[in-house]
Specification:
By secondary structure, this protein is of the alpha+beta class. It has two domains: about 300 residues, DD-peptidase/beta-lactamase superfamily (Beta-lactamase, 3-Layer(aba) Sandwich); about 150 residues, STAS domain (Transcription Regulator spoIIAA). The chain contains 21 helices and 13 strands. The protein has a five-stranded antiparallel sheet. Strands 9-10-11-12-13 form a five-stranded mixed sheet, with helices on both faces. Strands 3-5-4 form a three-stranded antiparallel sheet. Strand 10, helix 14 and strand 11 form a beta-alpha-beta unit. Helix 14 runs parallel beside helix 15. The longest helix has 16 residues. The radius of gyration is 32 Å and the shape is elongated.
């Protein structure tokens, strides 16, 4: 496993612009402090000695900002909140198929310490209950128990961004009283779900539960899951993104034990609780949360912790199924070239022809982020426009992101359009910007290589207009008399003839190539006419 990166403490929230979030935490802490009920867990004697009035909240963002209130820096033991991270370690080092042989992913509806296995496969139902966590603990790498303990400590130190140690008093308390867990371990030895000496496996399991952490530590750990497996403070990549998905999925369905269904309904955030009175929650791409308040309910969850998470979810609309995105907003507008034309100076004859035939050119402007839902909306509208368009321009100027699903759908659309009578044209795809993934996807497909791409929608419109004019037999690029150009209004016919004798014509290919060179230094040939990518035919080059 990777060595611990140099520790960089998470920056605390500053005042000023960041004050509203801190003010909210102060308010909710004061409000929830009045809630009574529950009691510290006493079946582990050391946990029963904890001050029940302790109450801290910490929120860590995916860029490492930390907000705290109350007893957020008071140490306590991690208990079952260690389980998601041990599960992530097992996935990272053994792979999904191997881990699934050992532990399932189904909710049980039973208490977290139930002595029960899946009757079909004889494996624990999921890694969030004690049986599953004990089986996962055996998967910690190391030739000896000491090596496995050191690797476990290194894992959690990497997650917290600081050195994490075992609370020896709590560890010994669990070791002395963990008879139910021993029953679970020996049952799994009997069914071959574990192979090592159960006492060795339990020793590691009891130590992982007795790790000494703070709410700040756990908020950073939760933010690591929210940040696709990268610690937002140290930038240490701990889990692959594919395994973070697995961890969050199991947290969402099983993390709150037999309260998981109601939690998913009311709060809707992947979470994990521990009997020491802590709850963590991770909102992918946004924040990690930890609440610490020792009094727990009969299901083993912090009473105040549940109240805080309910309030945060409701206040900031963080429920997993609260949809912030309206996919229809991807369509900015569409128009035809008989109404809106390029900035190319045209003769009266050309303008008249484009007014009549320009409707065969359609422009569709996209905006926002492209993902499955929004791209489906975009392609559906593209299909409608293609029915009566000979040229269809898609302008990506206002698109700031395209994910893998969007790129795959667009490449499929290019392939389908290649077999139709409509020529698809793309504009404003910056191959060094936010759409570089789309650029690569197009370059890797045969059809994408052939699609015409222009630096902006005006250049794309001009090219399409030239094709329409050429197909009608018009001479594109007709030379203008000076008296047809507004710049020379006021000159007499003799003066116009004098100026015409000394001016030098400049071809559009030459002018546009110069512009292309200014934008992209590597573009130096006529193949980049109008900022176009790809190799135009000789006719296209002449028309440019």
């Amino acid at each position: 496993m990777n060595k611990l990166d140099p520790v960089r403490p998470a920056p605390l929230a500053e005042t000023g612009a960041l004050a509203p979030i801190q003010d909210y935490l102060n308010e909710i802490h004061a409000r929830v402090s009045k809630i009574e009920g529950g009691a510290p867990a006493d079946y582990i004697p050391e946990l029963g000695k904890v001050d029940p009035n302790l109450f801290g909240i910490a929120i860590a963002t995916v860029d490492g900002q930390l907000y705290t209130v109350g007893d957020a820096r008071v140490p306590f033991t991690i208990q079952s909140v260690s389980k998601p991270f041990m599960y992530g370690y097992a996935l990272q080092h053994h792979g999904r198929p191997r881990v699934l042989e050992q532990v399932g992913v189904e909710p049980t509806g039973e208490a977290f310490n139930s002595i029960v296995l899946d009757e079909v496969a004889n494996r624990p139902f999921n890694p969030m209950v004690n049986a599953g966590a004990i089986a996962i603990a055996e998967m910690m790498q190391g030739g000896t128990l000491d090596q496995r303990i050191n690797n476990m400590l290194e894992l959690f130190s990497s997650l917290a961004g600081r050195k994490i140690e075992v609370d020896e008093a709590v560890y010994k308390s669990e070791l002395a009283t963990g008879h139910r867990n021993r029953a679970i371990a020996y049952m799994m030895l009997n069914t071959a779900m574990i192979e090592r000496d159960p006492e060795d496996v339990l020793d590691l399991y009891f130590r992982q539960c007795a790790l000494k952490v703070t709410a700040c530590d756990l908020a950073i750990m939760a933010a690591t899951l929210a940040n696709d497996g990268t610690n937002p403070v140290t930038d240490h990549k701990i889990f692959d993104t594919q395994y973070v998905r697995d961890v969050l999925s199991v947290m969402n369905s099983c993390g709150m034990y037999d309260y998981a269904g109601e939690w998913a309904y009311e709060v809707g955030m992947p979470a994990k609780s521990g009997v020491s009175g802590c709850i963590i929650a991770a909102i992918p791409g946004q924040i990690g949360i930890c609440v610490y308040a020792p009094p727990i309910d009969k299901q083993g969850n912090s009473v105040r912790g549940i109240a805080v998470c309910q309030d945060i979810s409701r206040e900031f609309q963080l429920h997993a199924f609260y949809n912030h995105t309206n996919v229809r907003s991807v369509l900015r507008r569409d128009y035809r070239a008989d109404i809106v034309r390029s900035n190319r100076l045209r003769t009266l004859e050309e303008r008249t022809l484009l007014a009549e035939a320009g409707h065969s050119i359609s422009v569709l402007e996209a905006q926002g982020a492209l993902f499955f839902g929004s791209t489906e909306q975009l392609l559906r509208r593209l299909t409608v426009l293609a029915r009566d368009s000979k040229y269809l321009i898609v302008d990506f100027k206002r698109v700031h992101h395209a994910d893998r699903a969007a790129c795959k759908l667009i490449v499929r659309a290019v392939r389908a359009m290649a077999a139709s009578g409509t020529e698809l044209v793309f504009a404003s795809i910056d191959d060094e910007g936010a759409l570089d993934r789309l650029t690569r996807a197009l370059a890797e497909s045969e059809e994408g290589h052939a699609v015409r791409q222009f630096r902006d929608v005006d250049a794309a419109l001009e090219w399409c207009e030239d094709q329409v004019l050429a197909s009608d037999g018009s001479s594109v690029g007709t030379k203008f008399s000076l008296n047809q150009i507004n710049l020379f209004d006021g000159l007499t016919p003799d003066e116009c003839r004098l100026v015409e004798g000394i001016v030098r014509p400049l071809s559009s290919t030459r002018a546009t190539s110069s512009c292309a060179r200014a934008i992209r230094p590597s573009c130096s040939s006529s193949s980049r006419a109008h900022g176009q990518r790809g190799n135009p035919s000789p006719r296209q080059a002449r028309q440019a």
